[in-house]
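User: I'm curious whether this sequence folds into something compact or stays loose and floppy. Could you predict its structure so I can see for myself?
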Amino acid sequence: MERGETAPVSIYGYCKKLLLIFFYPNQSQYCDICFRRTSINTEQEIREIVGEKIRGYRMNKSIVYIIKQRFSCRTYLKKPIEEDHQRALIEFLESNHTGPLGTRARFALIAATEYDRKSLKGLGTYGFIKDAAGFIVGALEQEPKNLEDYGYLLEHAVLYATDIGLGTCWLGGSFTKSSFAKKITVTSTEIVPAVVAVGYSASNADIRSQIRKRAGAQHRFPKEQLFFDRFFGNSLNKENIREYADVLEMVRWAPSASNKQPWRIIRSDGAWHFYLQRTQGYGKGTLTFNLLRLADLQRIDMGIAMCHFELAAHEFNLPGRWLVDEPGIIKPENVEYIASWTTVPSERLINEA
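Assistant: Here's the prediction. I'll summarize afterward.
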């Protein structure tokens, strides 16, 4: 049988499909596609074909559920992270190192110390982080899209930590010369633009309270201000959004520095174009930013939004890929193009396997 022909129905195939669905419950749609539409003759071919489609999406629960459960946890139980949770999170961090725009980063889970608390004192409300068991710390080189990739990768880790029952809190600032940087031996060409506190939330009451707060519409911009059809100012309606309605809603739930929500997305010609609308008087170019040499947090926010978009699109079986190819869309002042998600039919994904 030639490669690409329909594979015969076999007990072997169905057993492998059931195993894949068991170990990767949220990826069953790709298992369906692979076993229904592709010739699969060996165990190695299964790893090659399915692995490319589901690598990096290892979540036990629905991504929609996880996103809505995540909140900025500032008070933790005074207990270390359990060994099985440590092992799972470290394994995830070690495999989660290349961003969608090509930047490589490295991440480590480190235990919290008094020196780490001192590193947080100059970060305003972040200084009130209490009893975090550890921190996720990452480093990467200076490259054109490095901060977007860093935001994407670290938010993916945050969602994975949420999935296994850990509380987290993003901490953005300047950590390149901090105790965090020393612990992961940052080189002279690397930066540490943000870290994440991690541990067990102090109480279930706090969790419920924070989730209720995040559910409030007043904390998020309405979709009419964020998502547009073909050009800025032309808001998407329900007919325009169709199957992407829930995907865009998950972007609205994304965390951002000081809750500025700088992402703007335009749908045009089968693609979703991501733009950064900078907040005036905040971040890059401001006196505080320059004096403290802070990371460009709004670019990190864009990576976080991209992460939510892709993971949700994957869950709703809406395949696509990232590319940097700015369309000829007229941009308002203080708006920068970041990247585009171009939709890819399932047939094309299978043909490229």
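Summary: Residues 1-55, 346-353 have pLDDT under 50 and may be disordered. DSSP finds 14 helices and ten strands in the chain.
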